[in-house]
């Protein structure tokens, strides 16, 4: 049986999380809201699984597929107008190839058309006015903190005077202490960071309070797999691989529990041992 109860977080979410007759809460959303849900659920000691925020690294390896993988990484970030919790928002490239990455990213971003999703456009608006303003503030923060603006920037795209449309935005020469590299923007904004070695790339990738997803792109599959094993995230994709049978969920402030596949069913079960 499936029941749908409509309402907002305070009106519906809080009573459900705290009610003694509710055995489990499964939540997808922001880390901030997830923390509140866990607090409300704690007095009843119910099970809580959460798929929360992310700031997922995308390590592009230094090989013959570099140019293709940079372009794919930028394009992937713009899906759902950047409103994907597992979006590859931190692209890590070899520092020696930063200029090359910038040129590719600029060209890719400039080819992403923005407009009414009923028309022939690649990207539509973001979800609300509040989210639009948050994204704009973070874009301005990136400029103020010294990141190199490669494409996009503040304001709406040309020809769109109204609506919550955001320019496909790329920052480069970003350092991992900048706000745009630390906070989940949840919009079409990708940050490009340079690394000196694979070890350095892994160090940067793991230097985050999140751990929802990670990405590795490279022509050498075994090398890519070795890097993927070192990323502290619950779900790591190599070269755009995707499978709903693979468990999905986060480390650290990206949540707990898993969705998809057999592991997703286990979250909704209680285990009983009968002896004798």
TrEMBL record:
Gene3D superfamilies: Aldehyde Dehydrogenase, Chain A, domain 1, Aldehyde Dehydrogenase, Chain A, domain 2. This is Aldehyde dehydrogenase family protein. Belongs to the aldehyde dehydrogenase family. The keyword Oxidoreductase applies. It holds the Pfam family Aldedh. Residues 2-272 form the Aldehyde dehydrogenase domain. Keywords: Oxidoreductase. It comes from Streptomyces mirabilis.
């Amino acid at each position: 049986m499936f029941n749908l109860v409509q309402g907002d977080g305070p009106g519906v979410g809080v009573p459900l999380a705290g009610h003694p007759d509710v055995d489990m809460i499964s939540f997808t959303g922001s880390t901030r809201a997830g923390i509140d849900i866990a607090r409300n659920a704690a007095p009843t000691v119910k099970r809580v699984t959460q798929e929360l925020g992310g700031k997922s690294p995308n390590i592009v390896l230094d090989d013959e597929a570099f140019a293709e993988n940079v372009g794919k990484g930028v394009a992937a970030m713009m899906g759902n107008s950047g409103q994907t919790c597992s979006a590859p928002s931190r692209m890590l490239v070899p520092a020696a190839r930063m200029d090359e990455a910038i040129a590719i990213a600029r060209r890719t971003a400039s080819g992403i058309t923005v407009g009414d999703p009923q028309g022939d456009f690649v990207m539509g608006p973001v979800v609300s006015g509040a989210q639009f303003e948050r994204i704009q503030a973070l874009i301005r923060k990136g400029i103020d903190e010294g990141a190199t603006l490669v494409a996009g920037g503040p304001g709406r795209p040309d020809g769109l005077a109204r609506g919550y449309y955001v320019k496909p935005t790329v920052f480069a020469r970003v350092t991992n202490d900048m706000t745009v590299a630390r906070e989940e923007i949840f919009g079409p904004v990708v940050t490009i960071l340079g690394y000196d070695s694979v070890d350095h790339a892994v160090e940067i990738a793991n230097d985050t309070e999140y751990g929802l997803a990670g990405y590795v792109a490279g022509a050498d599959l075994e090398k890519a797999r070795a890097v993927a094993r070192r990323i502290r995230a619950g779900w790591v994709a190599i070269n755009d691989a995707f499978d709903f049978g693979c468990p999905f969920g986060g480390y650290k402030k990206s949540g707990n529990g898993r969705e998809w596949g057999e592991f997703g069913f286990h979250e909704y079960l209680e285990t009983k041992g009968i002896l004798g």
